[in-house]
Structures are given as C-alpha cells and as structure tokens.
Design a protein that fits this description.
By secondary structure, this protein is α+β, with helices and mostly antiparallel strands. The chain has ten helices and 18 strands. Helix 3 runs parallel beside helix 4, helix 7 packs across helix 8 and helix 7 crosses helix 10.
Length: 427
C-alpha cells in the first residue's frame, strides 16, 4: 500500500495545510488525478497522484498543517481501510523528519489510543490534550505545560503558532512594579489572555497562506537591512512604443503592458549590475547565472510572486504572454511549484492603483525589488519651454549587505536610460 506524502511545492516550503480533499476513501485513483488542494507559504496548489488504485484512507484532515514528507493518505488495492491512523504514528517521525514514500504494510489495529496517537498525551484524570507533533516537541524543549495552552488548530488542537505565541509572551518585558518591595520568591502570574474584541468589530481568521506571508515579510524586514533609492522616469516615449506594438494585434494577440516593458528594462540592467541579481549566504555572495524576474500579483489568497525565467533573453511579446498567463493562474490559485521558484529579482507595480510612490519589502533571498508607481502628466522644462510629459516614480529597495547607494543609483540610471530610449528594449 502506497503513502501519499506532503510534497515540497516551493523552494521555501517547510510545511503545508490541507485546504480541501477532492477525493474520498473508496474513490478510484488514476495517475495525474488531483487528490487535494494544499496551502503553502506562497499559494494554494494541487496534490497530484503518482500511482493508481483506490484511495484507502485519509490521514490528515482538512485544515491540518503537517511538515514536508509526512503521509497524507493511503492508496492501494482492495477494501477501504476504515480505522483512521495518524500519519506521524505510522511513519515514526516527530513531525520534523520525512516519512517513507511507501508503507511496507497497513498498520495494525490500535489497542491503546493514548500510546499510538501523537496528537494526544496521557494526563491521568484530567483527560487528554490534542497537540501536533511539532508543538509537542517545542513544549518539551521549553518545559511548557500543554494544559495551560489554548489550542487554535482544528478541534482545539495545539499547533506551533500557539507555542510561539506563548514563548513571545514569556519573552516580553515585565510591567514595572507598583511598589519597589517584592517578595523574591513570588511566582509571576501567567500572562492575561487577550481581551475579547469590542462587539461592533468584525474578526476574521487569517488563512494559512496569509499567516505565512506575514511571517515571511516580518523576517525579511528583521533580517535584511533595507535601504531605498527613488528615481523619476520620463515614460512618454515608451508609452508611444507600447501603443505602436499593440496597434495591429489580431484577436489571438497578447497586448504588451507597461509592466512588461519595465520588467524587460530591469532584466537588461541586471546584466550590467550582477550584484543586484544575487543573494548572500553567511559570508558568501552568490551571483546568479540566470536572470529570473518575479512579478508581484494580488491573488485571492494573498500576494504571490510568479517568476519569468531568463527574462533578459526574451522579447517583450514573450514576456507579455508569460506575464498574462502567470497572472491568470495566480488569480485562479493554479500556480505550479515551478511558477514560483527561482526568482532572482522582483518588480511590484501599483501604477494601476493610482499610487504616486511607494516602497516594497524585499522578497528573500533576493537582493532587491523595484516598486513602480503611477505615470502622471507633468510639465517639465524643454529648451526653456514647459512641455507636458508622462513621468513615473520608481523606488528600489535594496539589501545593504550587498548593494550600496552608488551602485543602486547607477542601476536605476540604466533602467531609466532603457525606458527613455525604448527601442533598445526590442533588440
């Protein structure tokens, strides 16, 4: 009987959440069938079957989060297995290691649910506590009594976030004492639970993807020393070029957007400034051989950054086709792992949102991201006379461990030069 394990669906993925099972026990499975939808740190993706048979058993329920490699379901031949057995108990992992790809045989019937189920703990007369294997291990490492933790997972299960929240509360500085004299042997009172929101407010639970995006962006700002340089670009000629490129398209043709031309300009500029197409690992600077530009897309599950590979070698029409296809898949939650992996630089464009200027957060492990604002008509002096031109502000957020002000300014000058001589983008 084969196990279906949690796959690695992105380069940064460490765990995944079952969003929805599309097959149920007893269903016949063929290679290529979509078994479930999985929420990762970047998007919601499909779980594909790689063997044929009958779906015998679902081991991880909808809403549950498990690490890469943990068994999710069983596919085999014959009668459907009725007794649910958690995957971690079968694989013998503690929630951090990888489960085997194929099980040698179906598990034996459980005779003692307390000893076999990794999400419960024997607590004598007080009942049981449901906790994920990772949360249980963290609690043991930090000597946390799970009875004192309020679980926020499915069915009140204690998950990693609950343990991390408790550790953050412990690490918070104590409030100043009202009197200087305090008994040295006094035991501090536990942190008060958060107060209930006012009745006139609306409370929405974050999706797993939103939680992971928030964590990832927080880590970016905390671990990467950001700095920002802005430049104003005259877009008058590039807008005329775009109009020319799109003038004679048939119904099958894909229109070139301003963002496609900006992406192409960035890719060509990265050829001259490879430091902006790099990352830092410990005491080493890693320079990427390929220029893969990510484009930020506002998808239903949150911000995602699909990647256009080898962007510098592609024409603007090819970039336009890929960009349109990637954006459509992102908004339909149909991005594949390869769509999201391998980015070396990112572009975030809010020009269509009437943003006069903004700065973006670096998408780790990249070194920089370009924030693109709206194009606005302004009068500028040309040979002593005011001339109406289309101006756009761009801001580069850069990793100061890799890039310095002068390098970033020169990079933006090259992007500006390419956009202001737009036919150079077609070579």
């Amino acid at each position: 009987m084969g196990e279906v394990s949690m796959p690695r669906l992105s380069d940064t993925m460490q765990e995944g959440t079952i969003a929805q099972w599309l097959k149920q026990p007893g269903d016949e499975i063929k290679k290529g069938d979509i078994l479930a939808e999985i929420e990762t740190d970047k998007a919601t993706m499909d779980l594909e079957a790689y063997e044929e048979g009958t779906l015998q058993q679902i081991l991880v329920q909808e809403g549950e989060t498990v690490p890469i490699g943990q068994a999710l379901a069983l596919i085999g031949m014959g009668a459907v297995v009725q007794s649910p057995v958690p995957a971690a108990a079968r694989s013998g992992t503690d929630g951090a290691g990888a489960a085997p790809a194929v099980a040698a045989s179906p598990p034996k019937a459980e005779t003692n649910i307390q000893s076999a189920h990794p999400e419960t703990a024997r607590v004598g007369e007080l009942g049981t506590v449901k906790a994920s294997p990772l949360a249980r291990r963290m609690a043991e490492e930090h000597r946390i009594d799970l009875h004192q933790v309020q679980g926020t997972g499915p069915g009140g299960r204690i998950v990693r976030d609950d343990i991390e929240d408790l550790l953050e509360q412990r690490a918070a500085p104590p409030a100043p004492a009202s009197t200087p004299a305090a008994a040295p042997q006094a035991i501090p009172a536990p942190a008060a639970p958060p107060s209930a929101p006012p009745p006139e407010t609306e409370v929405r639970k974050l999706s797993r993807v939103q939680v992971l995006i928030a964590r990832r962006l927080t880590e970016s700002k905390q671990s990467i020393p950001h700095f920002y340089v802005s430049s104003e670009v005259d877009m008058t000629d590039v807008l005329l070029l775009r109009q020319t490129l799109n003038a004679n398209l048939d119904e099958e043709g894909v229109k070139v957007t301003v963002n496609d031309l900006i992406v192409k300009a960035c890719a060509l500029a990265l050829e001259k400034f490879p430091e902006a197409n790099s990352t830092i690992q410990g005491e080493q600077l890693i320079l990427y051989k390929h220029i893969n530009v990510g484009i930020a897309v506002d998808a239903p599950t949150g911000l995602v950054v699909p990647v256009i590979r080898d962007t510098n070698t592609k024409g603007v029409r090819s970039i336009a086709r890929e960009s349109k296809a990637l954006s459509a898949r992102a908004r339909a939650n149909k991005l594949s792992p390869i769509d999201l992996e391998g980015g070396t630089f990112s572009v975030s464009n809010l020009g269509m949102m009437d943003a006069s200027s903004f700065i973006a957060v670096i998408n780790p492990p990249q070194a920089a991201i370009l924030a693109v604002a709206s194009t606005r008509k302004q009068y500028v002096p040309v040979e002593g006379q005011p001339v109406l031109r289309d101006l756009m502000t761009v801001t580069l957020s850069a990793d100061h461990r890799i890039l310095y002000g002068a390098t970033v300014a020169r990079f933006l000058q090259e992007v500006k030069r390419l956009l202001q001589t737009p036919y150079s983008l077609l070579g």
